[in-house]
Amino acid sequence: MMARHHLGRIIALVVIVALAGAGCATRPAAVSNPAFAARPAAQSVLQSVKTERALEDRILALDPERISAEDVRETLLKGPVPRIILLHGGIYPVHLVMESAGRFLTGMGYPEERIRHPGDRRWSHSPYENSAQIAGLIAWYYEHDGMRPMMIGHSQGGIQAVKVLYELAGQIDDPLRVWNPLTDEAEDRTSIVDPLTGAERPVIGLTVSYVSIVGAGGLALLLPNQWTMAGRLRTIPDSVDEFTGFAIGLDLFALTLPGDTEAINFRREGNTIVRGVMLPASYSHVFVPATVDLITDAATRNWINAYRAADAGVAIPPESAGGGVLWAADVWYSVKKHWAIEAQRLIRAKRITG
Predict the structure, then answer these.
(1) Dihedral (CA of 62, 65, 71, 75) sign
(2) Do β-strands 191-193 and 200-202 pair in parallel, antiparallel, or remain unpaired?
(3) DSSP 26-37
(4) pLDDT per position as a tens digit, 263-307
(5) Segment 90-106 mean pLDDT
(6) What's the rounded Cα separation, in Å, for the pair 332 and 328?
(7) Residue 352, class by beta-carbon neighbours within 10 Å (0-12 exposed, 13-18 middle, 19+ buried)?
(8) Residue 150: which of 234, 203, 104, 81 has the closest Cα?
(9) DSSP state of 204
């Protein structure tokens, strides 16, 4: 647990100053990437999937609701993998907490290169980035990968994740331009070639597979970059297949008090599957995603791997588990689920065009 304690000392020294100047949070400078990828031609993504038939059969046979550690290691890791976009909070250096979450996911078996930004290699995005830019980035990833990304947001990053969903739903900026992560610039187009169908389609109307947020709301909704989300945060647009909103039983940052069921009362537009999960009041708003230490304990890892979403609110983690384990287990369950779904979706499209 030493890494987490060291992180705590760093954040404790700066949190008061950071609250006063939260708008100064920054992201790393863009890095020129010589591996610039041109716009894919129709069907080229499907043609580039070179997985063997036997592996594809194993992926298609998976039950996304029941993905084991062996399924991850022996099947999913050997096939196509979607992107995960992490969004950290606005208080410097809380991005280190989301880096910890990213390292937790890679420790559980998710490929690091499918989380870290392909341009400047950062682990997570700032809530001070333009939400239209992140929506355009999602379009770029989908066009090049053939799989829809997932988003995981913490604190103000959770507000940003929902704001991006509103962007994709066409309720903020219209039109949306494709954003290239390798050049860190907008491309001169507002549509993509759908990698599964070959048809031209606008960025607006695209969907992501899974989004989760934790500790979102409260005073952060008064910040200039987020005040348009006041009154909208808990209504989830129909631009994501499945959404999970986590709240902490006592969270002075998000203004959640004990017994506040409204904090997990998320509503949906359209067919989005929406869940609200209350985490223990003992959890820390700042540290709940700081979960990399969980991977070092075998009993905790086994418990996380066996966890299912139906266990929320009743599952009891091992005594050796640290804070944030319930959040980590629920997120990992959903990540595995949508990893399998997106891989299956890509393989089925490949076989249809065959």
Answers:
(1) positive
(2) antiparallel
(3) --PPP---S---
(4) 999 999 999 999 999 999 999 999 999 999 999 999 999 999 999
(5) 93
(6) 6
(7) exposed
(8) 81
(9) T
- What are the residue ranges spanned by the domains of the chain? 44-353
User: Does residue 222 contact residue 255 with C-beta atoms inside 8 Å?
Assistant: no
Strands (E), the chain: 84-87, 124-125, 150-154, 179-180, 185-186, 191-193, 200-202, 208-214, 235-236, 240-248, 267-268, 273-279
pLDDT at 348: 97
- Parallel, antiparallel, or unpaired for β 208-214 and 200-202? unpaired
Instruction: Choose among 92, 87, 124: nearest CA to 11.
Output: 92
Residue 341, C-beta contacts closer than 8 angstroms, at least 6 positions apart:
64, 209
Phi, psi for residue 207 in degrees, rounded to 5: -125, 160
Return d(Cα 38, Cα 285) in angstroms, integer: 41
49 vs 60 pLDDT, higher one: 60
- 13 versus 185: the higher-pLDDT residue is 185
Topology of domain 44-353 in CATH is Rossmann fold (3.40.50)
**Where do we find the tokens 């979607």?**
82
Residue that is written with structure tokens 């980590």 in the block: 328
- Average pLDDT (108-120) is 97
Pairing of strands 185-186, 179-180: antiparallel
pLDDT, one tens digit per residue, over 245-257 is 999 999 999 999 9
Confidence of residue 70 (pLDDT cuts 50, 70, 90): very high
Q: What is the pLDDT of residues 162-193, one digit of tens each?
A: 999 999 999 999 999 999 999 999 999 999 99
Contact 213, 246 (CB under 8 A): yes
Please state the φ and ψ torsions of residue 172, each to the nearest 5 degrees. Answer: -130, -75
The β-bridge partners of 201 are: 192
Listed residue (342, 32, 26, 27) closest to 180, CA to CA:
32
**Interval 324-346: pLDDT, tens:** 999 999 999 999 999 999 999 99
Other Cβ atoms less than 10 A from the Cβ of 188: the count is 7
